[in-house]
């Protein structure tokens, strides 16, 4: 073959390749739209908050919603009896006047008469009755029906189980703007519970006319809140715009909130860097990179992560053994080195900033912490436990999530146990979320790392986890003294004496932790980058995550 | 030939049916339910399982599902109650555009590079393209994609960081997805060209005195391309799995994202529906390749049948 030709052909082909690549890039540049904002008069510019969110809205039927995204949108586009303003403050929503009976079991709410749905229909007490009955109806298939029980409505449990018709639920509309509620026990946190999106009103005529399609698109929804959902492109992006007909429209500072759905944390950070969004949550590794950035802020949560010890296994039926394990962990290493995101080591079970007592103070302010690390004592208790149990060594199965963070935490705890407690071998068993839950439910673990987020602003949301045979008591802990306090605080004597109730709940926490059935590890924190011109955006402890009525952009 | 096509279509449908059935059975063994398990007690879960018919015995659920599928009803998502078919229809266009771009771009570049390498065997261009191909196969899509996103999107700002429904915003996802295509096609093409150049009929062509361009274009390239078409079939599978990663990085609202979310949330009908869809795509791709093979390669046509590739 002539070498000359061969070279020519190669050149032609390579040239072709280069031309294609250049053409591609040129086409890209030519077609790319100009994203830059016009530099016009700053005052006329609409105030737009640009966010990234990790999931799309599954649906906006408040009687079916279960996830943070639905709750966040609902929380800003529909107004219920009360609303949860940033920082867990409970403020009136549609309630004009509230009357509570002496025994705390009867509420009469007089509603404002000026709130309208986006189709002009007035929002009435009937909308609340319909919504709560729908939530409770087993035929509706709402996964948050359990909130009806949490709220303590009369006949709640029976209605949810289908034993009584929904009309028997303890709520009725006396007239268009008067709502009467009957509870089975007094609930000090009832008003705060009413801020939860599952209790928002639904207009019966509209919802029934849409049937199964209710809440699935913008056209199949009605709004009465500070914002309306104006556009929703599934899995791509959705936008809330200011509702001019909102009863407090003058308080709403933002014109638009835009959410782009982005599942990848790294991508979200890149978007922030490229000035496409105004705020981004950071993972532990990313925090390291941005630790000196002036726009780094703390995003504390009220989520607690803890170890559950399987009390049904011989080893953990022994109190000294449990206590030994509880005293053996250096939790600050986990929060400061592994997590490094503002999480706090927890020698307590009821988180900070969850709720405030009758004395006006946070639960944690007026009580102590327990079982602080003491490795010497741990080793000593362990020796005693081994003698009592008649063993020299033991192998334990430690179940945890399969995330990287869980792995690091698990490995660290494993090393702490093995080095402090002679003869202990820990085997880590990482599982995807659903598997872990199933193992927990079935008691197929010795130790498990679990987390719990609060449902409402009262310590009970954490404390009632561990009553004997409780639905979430995977540790299978059983202490009659503990049970007594909880039951009384819910439906017994303590329910009517709020001051004593509060102190008794603090005592219950002490019992729980000193019994070491459960070993708290950390209260989850978070970090985020926010542009300095975004103001007043505070994470709530429970749904909705963010309330945008008072958020401002000052550019 | 027609009979051959009908036979193959029948096998495609049969295979899809088997795949769905096996997936269905496997799903029953997945722990967890489509519900918010961490907040539900056992009693509450039981009520929900009953309502949605998920506690019926497996054969009952299977028969119910298959019955609906035959009527074109693929069920609804547990998460957002939309019909699975509408969800797939919404997303398929986006995934198809990026996937198709990656396939076309990747194949053209790959074939070109492979040809260059094969024609210059042992020389500089050969080594260079081999290096490119190896990098392409070794670097995972998410590494390459994330790197591109940062360098081209954030630092240099010449391309959009994420998908924006514009052509420009599909460039990076296409490149990330296409990298593997390039790598695979290059290798195939190079090997084929080398083999072809060493074959008897090329020797004959040389002996006949045909000019080099004629030999290469009329005989070598054409013959080398045939087996490369074969690899396009399995490449479709690579694209489908690659799309999962690429869509996540570039926030492309496509089918890849959908199936990952569905698996994470035990959204049975979505998983099954997408499973059927992907299987059909892959099987159809193979079918088309087989048919093309039959058309292009006279040896196959004349022999009247073909052993399965």
Characterization of the model:
- The complex is a heterodimer of chains A (about 550) and B (about 300).
- With about 550 residues, chain A is α+β, with helices and mostly antiparallel strands.
- Chain A has helices spanning about 5-30, 70-75, 125-135, 145-150, 155-160, 190-195, 205-210, 265-275, 285-290, 315, 320-325, 330-340, 375-390, 405-420, 435-440, 460-465, 480-490, 500-515; strands spanning about 50-55, 80-85, 90, 95-100, 105-110, 170-175, 180, 225-235, 235-240, 255-260, 280, 295-300, 305-310, 345, 395-400, 425-430, 445-450, 520-525, 525-530, 535, 550-555.
- Chain A is about 35% helix and about 20% strand.
- In chain A, the strands form 6 sheets. In chain A, strands 14-18-13-17-15-16 form a 6-stranded mixed sheet. A 4-stranded mixed sheet of chain A has the order 1-10-9-8, with helices on one face.
- Chain B is built from 12 helices and no strands.
Task: Outline the secondary-structure elements.
The complex is a heterodimer of chains A (555) and B (309).
Chain A: H1 3-31, E1 48-53, H2 68-77, E2 82-85, E3 89-92, E4 95-100, E5 106-111, H3 125-136, H4 146-150, H5 156-160, E6 171-175, E7 178-182, H6 190-193, H7 204-210, E8 227-233, E9 237-242, E10 256-261, H8 265-273, E11 279-282, H9 284-290, E12 296-298, E13 304-309, H10 314-317, H11 319-327, H12 331-339, E14 344-345, H13 375-389, E15 394-401, H14 404-420, E16 424-431, H15 433-442, E17 447-452, H16 460-463, H17 480-491, H18 498-514, E18 518-523, E19 527-530, E20 534-535, E21 552-553
Chain B: H1 2-28, H2 42-51, H3 58-70, H4 84-119, H5 124-138, H6 141-155, H7 168-197, H8 200-208, H9 212-249, H10 255-264, H11 268-296, H12 298-303
């Amino acid at each position: 073959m002539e070498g000359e030709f061969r070279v020519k052909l190669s050149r032609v082909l390579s040239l072709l390749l280069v031309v294609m690549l250049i053409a591609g890039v040129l086409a890209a540049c030519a077609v790319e739209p100009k994203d830059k904002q016009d530099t016009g008069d700053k005052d006329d510019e609409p105030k737009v908050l640009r966010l990234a969110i990790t999931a799309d809205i599954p649906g906006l039927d408040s009687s079916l919603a279960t996830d943070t995204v639905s709750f966040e949108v609902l929380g800003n586009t529909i107004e219920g009896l009360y609303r949860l303003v940033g920082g867990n403050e409970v403020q009136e929503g549609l309630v004009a006047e509230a009357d509570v009976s002496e025994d705390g079991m009867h509420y009469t709410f007089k509603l404002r008469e000026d709130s309208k749905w986006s189709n002009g229909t007035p929002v009435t007490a009937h909308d609340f009755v319909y919504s709560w009955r729908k939530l409770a109806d087993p035929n509706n298939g709402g996964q948050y029906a359990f909130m009806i029980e949490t709220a303590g409505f009369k006949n709640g449990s029976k209605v949810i189980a289908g034993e009584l018709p929904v009309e028997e639920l303890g709520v009725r509309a006396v007239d268009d703007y008067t709502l009467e509620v009957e509870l089975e026990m007094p609930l000090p946190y009832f008003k705060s519970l009413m801020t939860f999106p599952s209790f928002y009103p639904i207009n019966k005529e509209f919802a029934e006319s849409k049937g199964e399609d209710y809440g699935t698109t913008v056209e199949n929804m009605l709004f009465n809140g500070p914002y309306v959902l104006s556009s929703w492109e599934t899995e791509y992006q959705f936008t809330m715009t200011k509702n001019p007909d909102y009863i407090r429209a003058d308080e709403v500072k933002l014109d638009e909130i835009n959410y782009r759905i982005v599942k990848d944390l790294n991508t979200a950070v890149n978007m922030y860097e490229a000035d496409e969004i105004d705020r981004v949550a950071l993972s532990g590794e990313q925090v390291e990179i941005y630790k000196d950035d002036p726009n780094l802020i703390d995003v504390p949560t009220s989520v607690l992560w803890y170890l559950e010890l399987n009390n049904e296994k011989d080893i953990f039926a022994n109190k000294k053994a449990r206590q030994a394990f509880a005293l053996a962990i250096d939790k600050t290493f986990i929060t400061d080195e592994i997590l490094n995101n503002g999480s706090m080591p927890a020698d307590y079970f009821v988180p900070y900033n969850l709720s405030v007592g009758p004395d006006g103070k946070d639960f944690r302010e007026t009580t102590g912490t327990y079982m602080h690390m003491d490795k010497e004592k741990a080793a000593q208790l362990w020796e005693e436990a081994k003698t009592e149990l008649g063993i020299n060594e033991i192998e334990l199965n430690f179940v945890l999530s399969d995330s990287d963070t869980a792995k690091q935490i698990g490995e660290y705890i494993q090393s702490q146990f093995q080095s402090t407690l002679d003869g202990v071998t820990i085997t880590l068993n990482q599982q995807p979320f659903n598997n872990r839950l199933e193992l927990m439910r079935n008691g197929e673990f010795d130790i498990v790392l679990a987390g719990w987020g609060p449902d409402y602003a009262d310590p009970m949301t954490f404390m009632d986890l561990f009553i004997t045979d409780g639905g979430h008591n995977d540790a299978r802990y059983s202490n009659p003294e503990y049970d007594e306090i909880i039951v009384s605080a819910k439906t017994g004597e303590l329910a009517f004496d709020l001051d004593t109730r509060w102190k008794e709940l603090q005592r219950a926490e002490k019992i729980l932790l000193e019994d070491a059935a459960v070993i708290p590890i950390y209260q989850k924190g978070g970090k985020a980058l926010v542009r300095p011109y975004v103001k007043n955006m505070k994470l709530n402890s429970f749904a909705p995550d963010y309330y945008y009525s008072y958020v401002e952009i000052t550019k | 030939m027609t009979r051959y096509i009908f036979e193959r279509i029948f096998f495609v449908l049969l295979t899809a049916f088997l795949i769905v059935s096996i997936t269905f059975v496997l799903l029953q063994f997945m722990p967890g339910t489509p519900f918010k398990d961490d907040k539900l007690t056992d009693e509450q879960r039981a009520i929900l399982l009953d309502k949605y018919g998920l506690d019926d015995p497996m054969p009952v659920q299977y028969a119910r599902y298959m019955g609906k599928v035959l009527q074109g009803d693929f069920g609804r998502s547990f998460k957002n109650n939309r019909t699975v078919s509408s969800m797939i229809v919404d997303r398929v266009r986006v995934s198809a555009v990026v996937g198709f771009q990656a396939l076309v771009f990747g194949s053209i570049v790959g074939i070109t590079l492979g040809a260059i390498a094969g024609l210059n065997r042992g020389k500089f261009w050969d080594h260079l393209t081999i290096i490119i191909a190896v990098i392409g196969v070794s670097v995972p899509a998410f590494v390459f994609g994330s790197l591109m996103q940062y360098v081209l999107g954030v630092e240099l700002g010449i391309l959009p960081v994420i998908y924006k429904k514009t052509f420009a915003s599909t460039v990076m996802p296409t490149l990330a997805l296409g990298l593997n295509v390039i790598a695979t096609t290059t290798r195939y093409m190079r090997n084929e060209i080398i083999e072809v150049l060493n074959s008897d009929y090329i020797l004959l062509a040389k002996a006949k005195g045909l000019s080099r361009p004629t030999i290469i274009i009329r005989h070598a390239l054409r013959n080398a391309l045939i087996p490369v078409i074969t690899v396009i079939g399995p490449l479709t599978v690579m694209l489908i799995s690659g799309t999962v990663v690429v869509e996540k990085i570039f926030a492309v609202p496509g089918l890849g994202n959908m199936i990952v979310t569905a698996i994470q949330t035990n959204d049975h009908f979505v998983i099954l529906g997408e499973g059927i869809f992907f299987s059909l795509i892959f099987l159809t791709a193979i079918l088309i390749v087989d048919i093309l093979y039959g058309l292009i390669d006279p040896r196959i046509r004349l022999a009247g049948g073909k052993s399965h590739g």
